[in-house]
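Both lines are retained for reference:
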Amino acid sequence: LLFYNHREFEEQFITYIKLKQIKEACLIFQKNIFLMSHRETKKIYEYWLEEKETVINLLSRGDIEQAQKIAEPFLFHPKCKLEFREIEELQPDLMALQRCIRSMRYVLAYDLAKLKPELRKSSLFTQLESLWNKNLQKAQILLAREPLLNKEAAQESLRDFLEVEE
């Protein structure tokens, strides 16, 4: 009869998780596989969600190596691994969306997001929506103050978005 201490290395594992030393925490799984079901393991995924935006931004700029370096400690986790693969596959589209936003070609950016709905979940699309809302709000304020005098200024603030379909 063989007994195994399923709590062996637990304190060290918890310490690594609290310090966000994911790579070291994952190495402990090799010593005690039972820690994979530990309640602290869910924090690894939470930390991944925090880093995911950074990974997306790096990939949108073409910095694949740095994105992989950040993601690597999380890739033991099947959900993180799957999400990273999906993001990697979107990399060319993320770069294209980034270029569209930087060059103020918002029609193209929205068309791209329409073709690839996954892009709508990215921080880049959030940035695009923020630009739209900012310009819309500016136009609304102008029209609320003096509708007749500010009509052209309001139209000018929305000029970049005129061709965008709903």
About this structure: The longest helix spans residues 78-102. The mean pLDDT is 88. DSSP finds eight helices and no strands in the chain. The helical segments are 10-18, 22-31, 41-60, 64-71, 78-102, 106-115, 123-145, 151-158.
